[in-house]
Amino acid sequence: MNFIITETLNAVKQIYNEEIAESVINIQETRKEFEGQITLVVFPIVRFSKKSPEETATAIGEYLVQNVKEVTAFNVVKGFLNLSIADSYWLNLFNTELLNDDFAKVKPNGQKVMVEYSSPNTNKPLHLGHVRNNLLGYAVAELLKADGYEVFKVNLVNDRGIHICKSMLAWEKWGNGETPESANLKGDHLVGKYYVIFDKEYKKEIEALIAEGQTEDEAKKNAPLIKQAQHMLLAWEAGDEHVIALWKKMNGWVYDGFEVSYKNLGVDFDKYYYESNTYLLGKDTVDEGLEKGVFFKKEDGSVWIDLTAEGLDQKLVLRADGTSVYITQDLGTAQMKYDDYHMDQSIYVVGNEQDYHFKVLFLILEKLGKSWAKGLHHLSYGMVDLPSGKMKSREGTVVDADDLVAEMIDTAKQKTEALGKINDFSDKEKQALYYNIGLGALKYFLLKVEPKKRLLFDPSESIDFQGHTGPFIQYTHARIKSLLSKANYKLVAGEEQINVPLAPTELDMIMLLAKYPEEISNAAKAYSPAFLANYLYEVAKLFNKFYHEVPPIVKEENEALKQHRLNICKLTADVLKSGTKILGINVPERM
């Protein structure tokens, strides 16, 4: 629509003898209740015309109709000029640009961006919260790629600390040499089992000490198990060979388990960082901050930063004994990641319970004068809730990612078989279909909601072939592919297709499909896959309306019109497939 901007600038110059900046021109899609396709917002131009909004809009509308062949009519609603654009313009756009192989492909923009997501602990399996994190991180990374960025996906694994020592200690005490193979369990589930055992035994010790007269706080500190776990952590930090060997073995089990979960979720990473390699980082950054006067040292030797002027508080960055706190590590890790990749932006996909932490982290890095600190962004997201009783969890408290994936596939199987349309599928094809529908439903349901919002996820509700769901989009794609197959479709986009009559829903389809590159760009800028997810639903919904409103396409006798409508079908399928791929969703060819 650049020609509308150009011609409006010409109109203002011719009518009012005023040169105005392109930024003054605001065009948008016309609301459905009014005639036209493009709306010019006239209010910013009024200060140049010195006329009322209605007079200004009318004068510009008359100029455009007289001087621009693509503009066939106009109407004015207060300060809004609604323009009707000739069908020939849309048909030409569709056939020459939208059907081109390069449609929606963006050239590299020279910008580098890192997306850090997943960040699991190695003492338990991935759970429902990790599912949203992984799917969101992956989709944002793919969106940024589609918008021209060079993207690095990284995973900072929390593989050290008291949590992993609890699992290690419990396995030593009660494991009897159990392995993932002997237990027939994924490694992360086996290690998680011993984390739960530790917790149960620890609570027993606390209760016993309270019964002996200790307070709850005293009992928690004095319980033998917690003291043993703390001793094990000190031994790990001191490089004790036995503890290190056990740590490597159990973490190895967990990583094998995680890889299976990541593969099932369809996410991947370019690089893994491990807290065991980064937990000592940041002390150089603290020294730098002291030299620059950004940090100050208290009498006990602890190092702090005062952020009260920014509405925050005083923050400890190094303990009196010289040991790190979490933010110390994050300062050092942020510097290390920048040194590794020199990215322009770095996005941390972390739940909203860490909002304050990242405000402090980013502010400290800015105060330290890090040139790259302005490119840091915390992609905060809300929790995922499940309707009570809808899913059983292995430990009774959190829902494992593996259990959730298995339930989604099973639900997809039940609902697909109930439709009775896959009797001619092989068993292998059926299993692939159940997986794609189940995972498509899960991913779409979690991604269609703005990241910041808390959401309620019902596995059964998410698999609906007619609702605002992933399976509805998948089904629409499969339906189009079936239609194209029956028609023996081949792409033809020539002069004949530019001169066909255009039905209202066809025009709506062309306009909506034309917005695809813009939707990708907007979603990438907002770090919000929800923008793209909801756009794809609108495409699928409008296609179904188009399909029902036009006469049967395959039976159309006018060959040029038939080819044109098949071209619309083809581009719709392409957009649905391309867009869902960015979201990590596979669309079946048939279902």
UniProtKB/TrEMBL annotation:
HAMAP family: Arg_tRNA_synth (MF_00123). Monomer. Keywords: Aminoacyl-tRNA synthetase, ATP-binding, Cytoplasm, Ligase, Nucleotide-binding, Protein biosynthesis. InterPro entries: aa-tRNA-synth_I_CS, Arg-tRNA-ligase, Arg-tRNA-synth_N, Arg-tRNA-synth_N_sf, ArgRS_core, DALR_anticod-bd, Rossmann-like_a/b/a_fold, tRNAsynth_Ia_anticodon-bd. This is Arginine--tRNA ligase. It is found in: Cytoplasm. It comes from the Bacteria. Residues 473-591 form the DALR anticodon binding domain. It catalyses: tRNA(Arg) + L-arginine + ATP = L-arginyl-tRNA(Arg) + AMP + diphosphate. The gene is argS. Its EC number is 6.1.1.19. Residues 2-85 form the Arginyl tRNA synthetase N-terminal domain. The keyword ATP-binding applies. Belongs to the class-I aminoacyl-tRNA synthetase family. It is an enzyme of class 6 (ligase). One of its GO terms (molecular function) is arginine-tRNA ligase activity. Its main location: cytoplasm. A motif ('HIGH' region) lies at residues 120-130.
